[in-house]
Write a structure and sequence with these properties.
The protein is of the alpha+beta class. The chain has five helices and five strands, in the order αβααββααββ. A hairpin with a 2-residue loop joins strand 4 and strand 5.
Length: 146
């Protein structure tokens, strides 16, 4: 066994965080952990805060609209060099789904007490955005590239 065999699992472990979202304190934790991961991965302070804001919005949506779920943040690599080139946020829940995804992505639209900047805000803050929804669950993926 060489050094890279022993270091790789540790390296990957610190490049992914997952937070179970069941309370408001979990929303704050997801945001904080996503920011800290972005900073560890070498993102600028501004980009790290964009990622934290997007994580907060996604985690809040999971809690508010589905009653809970999970948020995972993980590094994206440039193979074969394995340099970190991005950070992916993945929010998943097993809620009722979004009845009208196009409407939910409209600036200013809100089904709750919020300002309606959740999903459109995430889309704006991140470089890539995708939404999959159906009755029984929603999955949102957003990536910020360095």
């Amino acid at each position: 066994m060489n050094d890279s065999d022993t270091l790789e699992p540790t390296r990957l472990a610190v490049e992914t965080i997952e937070v179970l979202i069941v309370s408001e304190s979990d929303v704050m934790s997801a945001s904080r952990q996503a920011r800290l991961l972005a900073e560890r991965l070498g993102f600028s302070r501004s980009s790290a805060y964009h990622i934290a804001t997007a994580a907060s919005e996604l985690a809040n949506n999971v809690l508010t609209h589905a009653g809970g779920g999970r948020l995972r943040a993980s590094a994206r690599h440039d193979h074969p060099e394995l340099a970190v080139i991005g950070l992916e946020l993945l929010a998943e829940d097993e809620g009722p789904g979004i009845p009208d995804p196009e409407l939910a992505l409209t600036e200013g639209y809100s089904t709750g007490k919020g300002l309606g900047c959740g999903l459109p805000g995430v889309k704006r803050l991140m470089d890539e955005f995708s939404l999959e929804t159906r009755p029984g669950g929603t999955r949102v993926r957003a990536v910020k590239w360095r």
